[in-house]
Amino acid sequence: MVINSSVGIDVNKQELFWGRRVFLKFLRINPHILNRKIVIFTWLYGVTLLVLSSVAVIAQSNPFGKALIPDMIADASIQEIDGTFYCYATTDGYDAGLKTSGPPVVWKSKDFVHWSFSGICFPSAAGQLYWAPSKAIAANGRYYLYPTVNGFMYAAVSDSPEGPFHLAQGPDTFIKPYSANTLLKSQSPHAPAGIDAEVFIDDDKKAYLFWQLRHAAWLHEDMVTVDTNVATIQTPHSGYSEGPIFFKRKGIYYFLYTLGGDEKYQYAYVSGNLSPLGPFDTPKGNDIIAATNYKRQIFGPGHGCVFNVPGTDDYYFVYLEYGRGSTNRQTYVNKLYFTSDGAIQPVDLTMEGVGALRKIKSDAPRKIKYAFASSIRTELKINPAKDSSFQRVEYFAPSFAFDGANGSRWMAAQNDTTCWLVADLGKVDQIKRSDIYFVRPTAGHSYMLESSVDGKHWTTCGGHHDARIQSPHTDIFKLKARYLRVRITEGVKGVWEWNIN
Question: Coil, strand, or helix at residue 289?
Fold first, then answer.
């Protein structure tokens, strides 16, 4: 729904105000309307239309739930290092399928709820196709990352899990289609084949590399040389496979691998207790632990990871969901459970998230009484790729920027040149902080933040004129106001979440 004037999201006095504007505009266009009964009817008709429009906006649902990150990401690898959770992933949402991706960034969080990033973590890989970067592996006093860049796996290194990373071998630059410094080496004229690296370090400190098509090999102590003896892990399901996950729990090695793709994405596993390279046994029960849940409308749980909270037996399954089709996916997390004999139980897939995994002191965001925007993007119908039962429509109501769910967002109409969003607290009150999570933050945003006590007179209180690659964009201040208004001056015209304290 797009209204040329401001758009409200609740049935309230503000809607009556905008209904009055519609009515007065109607009178200016139709001055011949003088009969009082006609005027009253027209006024009520205009207000009714506004109220019905508002009710329609309220009724719009969020089919994407509580995604982990306020952005489109896939192929996530998550770990906790020294009390901070790090998320390395493919950045989606650049609207060109596999022909493009976002730049390398690392999201971090202290509690697993509030996530942020600042700048690009692997500068030389910016502008390349950057996929599936793996976890940051601590070895040799440094941190190693294994992303797939332009379709080939590379090793990168940094002194910090936050980066900046640079290529671990050769000059810190990328040559297309690939260079001699790829992680895998080819013994023939053909290019070295392989994507989606996963690295596991066993209790004896030996490192192993797993990648596409169930391949695995020992990784030498330098963390960049892959042994030439490559194993193919035997699994009961054949066919294409990617997104390997490998971990060890209570002496049992677990190898997880994907089946299918799009809405048909699934995860299966095998396990064993002899070696990271096998042999592995097929579980006696169900070896497919994640598949589309039609009842909950969760489609294609695919490439992600399993991580453990250090010092606990708490394991979590991280997966991408088909989302908005193609490379417009988001990532979700559910608890992973085991039977007494170590078998993985099928994951109870939900889009509700797992909440905070560490307690930190933080203020809860203010509840916003009303929200208004310069426009709202027309609803988006998402087409299925392989499963006709997939039926999903995305809406972009202003209220979605304040619902505490990273799966929903407000988006302005594409032809909107003013592009603003207003948060109404309902009364004048003290405000000290604003955190805005823009849509497609890895491309950068500039904005102006304004405050008002009456909704008519506005004062600039934050923002910046240069486009910055970060999320959230934070403003600290001390002011009394009822309204905050953000004007997006550069970057994608949308907000995932806006927290005000």
Answer: strand
303-320 pLDDT, tens digit each:
999 999 999 999 999 999
- The question of whether 379 is a catalytic residue gets the answer no
Distances (CA, A) of 346 to 77, 236, 283, 291, 349: 20, 17, 12, 9, 9
CB 148 within 8 A of CB 119: no
- Answer for the pair 421, 486: CB distance below 8 angstroms, yes or no: yes
Q: State the pTM of this model.
A: 0.90
Contact 487, 430 (CB under 8 A): no
**Residue whose structure tokens are 């990648």:** 211
Which CA distances in Å does 388 have to 57, 296, 480?
A: 27, 16, 52
**Exposure string for 150-183, b = 16+ CB within 10 A, e = fewer:** bbbbbbbbbeebbbbbebbbeebebeeebbebbb
Short-list 247, 302, 293, CA closest to 272: 247
Stretch (H or E) spanning 117: strand 117-118
Rg (CA), the chain: 25
Amino acid at 118: S
Active-site residue, selected from the candidate residues 75, 162, 435, 475: 75
Helix, strand or coil, per DSSP, at residue 248: strand
CB 145 within 8 A of CB 134: yes
DSSP structural state of residue 181: T
Q: Which of 242, 394, 435, 450 is catalytic?
A: 242
Q: Is 75 a catalytic residue?
A: yes
Q: What is the pLDDT of residues 56-82, one digit of tens each?
A: 444 579 999 999 999 999 999 999 999
CB 433 within 8 A of CB 475: yes
Quote the CA–CA distance of 318 and 447 in Å, as a whole number: 33
